Amino acid sequence: MAPKVLISDKLSDAAVQIFKDRGIDVDFQPDVGKDKEKLAEIIGNYDGLAIRSATKVTEKILAAADNLKVIGRAGIGTDNIDKEAASKKGVIVMNTPFGNMITTAEHAIAMMFAVARQIPEASASTHAGKWEKSKFMGVELTSKTLGVIGAGNIGGIVCDRARGLKMKVVAYDPFLGEEKAEKMGVEKVELDELLNRADFITLHVPFTEATANILSRENLEKTKKGVRIINCARGGLVDEEALADLLKSGHVAGAAFDVFAKEPATENPLFNLPNVVCTPHLGAATSEAQENVALQVAEQMSDYLLTGAVSNALNMPSVTAEEAKVMGPWVKLAGHLGAFIGQMTDEPIKAINILYDGTVAEMNLDALNCGVVAGIMKRANPDVNMVSAPVVAREKGIQISTTNQDKSGVFDGYVKVTVVTEKRERSVAGTVFSDGKPRFIQIKGINIDAEVGAHMVYTTNEDVPGIIGALGQTMGENGVNIANFTLGRSEAKGEAIALLYVDDVVPASVIDKLQGTGLFTQVKPLAFEVA
């Protein structure tokens, strides 16, 4: 059955057509996003939800989204999505960070020009029939110092445009390396130095715990007298009350804001102050940008629903379509290894250690980690998936660590998973053969070669005669057909294991009979998702 996608905000016809052309059943209801009750009523019918900013994806909406796999936001900001609730529900949240980069950067530059030359006020005065030429004395941008807070995608474009205007650019960004800054032609500085030197300050960071109120009253008071401040990023980055006070005192010469702490902004401390330019969140409001982000979100959602490729996800590692093809069997293996240990471990897990050896060590390890953790968590929570599993593990206080190394054995690549509890450590390793089939290759340090089946039985025992006979006879007498049978031992007369791949679920009565023979220290039925 084809995946179903609901578009609950206005998206272009071309975006709708992309879904249709890719074979996805699309339901275009551009007004339903504003009706919370209606959205909650129908959301359970869809695999994907495509939105802009009008739709609010709350915890209540997600609680009703039983089949939802992905939410695609046509745009950058995802403040209208409860991402924590989505992650717990196992729903991927995607945005489109590149579709409106140029548009937003251009708006910031336009706002900088507007506040430098007081263009809106001069325009309003002239329209009113006044000719107040001497009133609107501006400043040039050439040779002025622009302080850019956040030199990522959009901030980087602003830096480039500002250098074209012959401005000196200083940037504060903890993630900006010296080499990258040099290539960009900007000077990397700490925040206090930027505040002290900049004639203009523009913000281009997301709203996070680290960036909230980054231009606080204290920081605003550190700025150079006569500074002009531009915010086309997110509301809440600037203390608006403090900025209003500094504008009134004359310490700040002007401000240009496209975003506000509370939106829609029908009132604000910055409104009606001289030389303050305000626009109603227009950063991405060009026809080109609106089309770009709509097309991008349709492509990204289609790729995920049809091929498993993950692009620009906020709560899941990205996996390209090419990676998805190569990594598919390895992701399955990761899940099987996790499922094996999850089913074998009854006590609380303190830590999960994952070793990647050889070719697999060069793959997208974040995605593989999610597969392992999801496999482990499924025993306790069958609804967990690669999105929600890391959240569940984090809530339980489980430490996750990874190690990758060059090829160390006969296999081109393998994965080994070890869990640590208060009582013990337990490990299992596996690889993917050339036929694309995952295999178990080691359990408890004992080498084996076992195909993974939907229904399996794992036993441990002392290496003595009669084990194979007991297993075969008991299964045969109770109508359980063995598809594959793998044995391994640590040493002669030492610990031994057996892994049976059987056609159907083994009844509990058969497990009890095997235990009753007294030959086994452990008999455990296992189940794996092999489809």
Automatic annotation (TrEMBL):
Keyword rRNA-binding: no
Molecular function per GO: NAD binding; phosphoglycerate dehydrogenase activity
Sequence ranges assigned to domain D-isomer specific 2-hydroxyacid dehydrogenase catalytic in this UniProt record: 5-315
The protein's name: D-3-phosphoglycerate dehydrogenase
Functional note: Catalyzes the reversible oxidation of 3-phospho-D-glycerate to 3-phosphonooxypyruvate, the first step of the phosphorylated L-serine biosynthesis pathway. Also catalyzes the reversible oxidation of 2-hydroxyglutarate to 2-oxoglutarate.
Domain D-3-phosphoglycerate dehydrogenase ASB: 327-444
One BP term from GO: L-serine biosynthetic process
InterPro entries hit by this protein: ACT-like_dom_sf (IPR045865), ACT_dom (IPR002912), ASB_dom_sf (IPR029009), D-2-hydroxyacid_DH (IPR050857), D-isomer_2_OHA_DH_cat_dom (IPR006139), D-isomer_DH_CS (IPR029753), D-isomer_DH_CS1 (IPR029752), D-isomer_DH_NAD-bd (IPR006140)
Family stated for the protein in its record: Belongs to the D-isomer specific 2-hydroxyacid dehydrogenase family.
Domain of life: Bacteria
Enzyme Commission number, as recorded: 1.1.1.95
Domain ACT: 456-512
Domain D-isomer specific 2-hydroxyacid dehydrogenase NAD-binding: 109-283
This protein's UniProt keywords: Amino-acid biosynthesis, NAD, Oxidoreductase, Serine biosynthesis
Pathways per UniProt: Amino-acid biosynthesis; L-serine biosynthesis; L-serine from 3-phospho-D-glycerate: step 1/3
Catalytic reactions of this protein: (R)-2-hydroxyglutarate + NAD(+) = 2-oxoglutarate + NADH + H(+); (2R)-3-phosphoglycerate + NAD(+) = 3-phosphooxypyruvate + NADH + H(+)
